[in-house]
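fyi for ur records
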Amino acid sequence: MKHNYPTRHWNGLMLCLMVLFSSSVFATHIVGGELELRYLGTATAYSHRISLNLYFDDVNGNPGADDASVVVSIFRKRDNTLIDNVELLRQGSTLIDYTVPACSLPSLRTRLIRYTTDIGFPPALFNDPAGYYIVWQRCCRNNIITNIRTPQQSGDAFYLEFPALPGSGTTGFNSSPVFNVVKGDYVCIDKPFIFDFSAKDPDGDSLSYAMVTPYNGFSSSTNPNPAQPGSTQLGIPVNPIYYAGPYPSIEWVRGYSAQNAIPGPKPLNVNPRTGLLSVTADQVGLFVFSVEVTEYRNHKAIGRVRRDFQLRVIDCPKNSPPKLLMKPDGQASFYKSGTVLTVNEKDLNCLNLYVTDADSNQRVNIINMSGSLPGLSITPGQLTTRSSKDTLQSKFCFGRCVAGDTGKPITLILRVTDEGCPQGLSDTLSIRLNIIADKNNKPVATTNLPGGQTTITVGQSLSFTAFGKDPDNDQITIQAVGRGFDIAKAGMVFTPKSGTGTVSNAFSWKPTCSQTTKPNYTVDFVVTDTRCGANLRDTVTVNLSAQGLPSQPPTIQTTLPKPIVTVVLPPGDSNPATISFDVLANDPDRDTLRLTATGRGFDLKQTGMTFTNKFGKPTLSSAFGWQPDCSLLKGRDSTTFVLDFVADDRACQPRHTDTTTVTVIVKQLPITFDVNIPNVFTPNGDGHNDFFTAPGLPPNNCDEQFVQAEVVNRWGRSVYTTRDRTFSWDGQDQPAGVYYYAIYYTRHTYKGTVTLIR
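which gave:
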């Protein structure tokens, strides 16, 4: 369910039903838990996510108390004013695991139930500099808890504080610290116990941990899920201040406190910086406690969150801790703590380890606690005792650079841990070492390129080998670096390579014409040893250049007598105009040529021109053909097309092309409309002026075409119509008299009279 303020999610009827239902579910079930608040950014419509983690007693808890949803309240901290109630929906549950799963107890099983929802926080509602808090209250705790009064009637209040949104004097958006998921471990009486209760802060804020007294809140066995402020309970208004903070705490049994929640030689406490809990308990029982983590930004506390939890202390079967010893080579006695051993860096650095454990059939693991070490190996890392008198052996080895370059003694820390319950017991061995550094000699870089320089002709390949050698047999690396250029972009190939003592790799180059423009390529081959961070290097330099073969430029010409061709588009009823010629390319060196044609500002194919680019040995020949038409003029009287024909021998010389240009001017046939049309004809059969004709009519061109001719009498009735531009009318059976004619072209019309005389 998603929320955006200021909408209220609960009405009185809904809450009444919820209270009636929840009041019947008061069985003990709460082990602990905490709230989380996460800033989601601006990628979604909801700025924050509220989550609640509830640790539920999966053995003794009433399944009816596993709520489908929970309602948390948000208050303004300055005056405890309610901002809103938010419903969180159940997302799922998982059983929490043990550090050593085989150590689980049938009577101790805890389930993590997670509730969450996304919500929008309007800045206008969350701008108070004093900040805000979120709370959830629920009853009841386990009734077998040892250190608090009437646990079966004690509730829990999960609590989280957060700052105002940015713009209200805060340093920015904030997410609360997030506790790590706890383990289901238990404590053995009289045995040291460590429990991870740490949290991580998504914003990188500093965290501080403290033991605090758990909150009880206002819930009880008769009111296990209190109604929210401002609502009604069975029709009776609830005091809106009653369920706001401050919240009452649980009541400790006499002798217990936040600093003595689990008593013993070393009572339960938390490391204020790491969040690790530690305890050595001296009595069995089930003990509840709470840890509060405060987050600091710029040395100012901006928020806090509490986690409640409980730990069971039992009388465990006896488990003896293992013992870890070390004996240097050639010595009869074991290493004594604080003694400084001296070893040479050049030697193989291995230590002989010995492990004993009074428990038979006990597996133990040896781990390095010294941080990252070069060349580290522990062989074997896991051992098994067969009897209480076994002495197990292992070898701990490390590389020559373990001391770094400080020149000071170092401390190696090894730990052996058995697999006892609930957590393995350990023994730690600290070994002081004084490592005598071995002199580091400089490696040597060489190549087998004679004189360290050469010039290569385009089309040929250059190959030679670069070498690296280290007199100390250290790990070395060789690489090639171009001065002021990238060797890969220059077409050069060399892969960095590493090796011990010696290393080599091939360099190759097959230059192209583009590499002849740079007079010199300087390549440095750098060999670097990598001993203990104090690296030494040597460089050998080669100078390379590329040149093209001597070459004369090609030539190109056409079979046209002149480079300018004029094409007059004929009348539409005449044969179409065409232009054709051959393009010839040659090269005096008989280099392979590329013959191409390009139109200036137009595409040959789209214009209807035909020409095939050629590639091969000279002489190359390719025909050009074109049949232009009126569509090219686009309403103009003429248009011009310029074509460039290029021959390229692709030589690495400045003059490796020749170009010939052909200009084609396309015109249309001009039309003159000054036409003399006869105005009298005598169809008497004497062979003279027997027909009405217009022999001087202009021919068709791109803009003007003959449409039709028509003759009408004096009453406007058509007596003759034709679409033949060379028409002749004999008057037919029309009577003598004056007639009117019209001769239509696309744009012009000829009109006049003609007299028929019989």
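The first helix runs from residue 12 to 22. thats all i got for now
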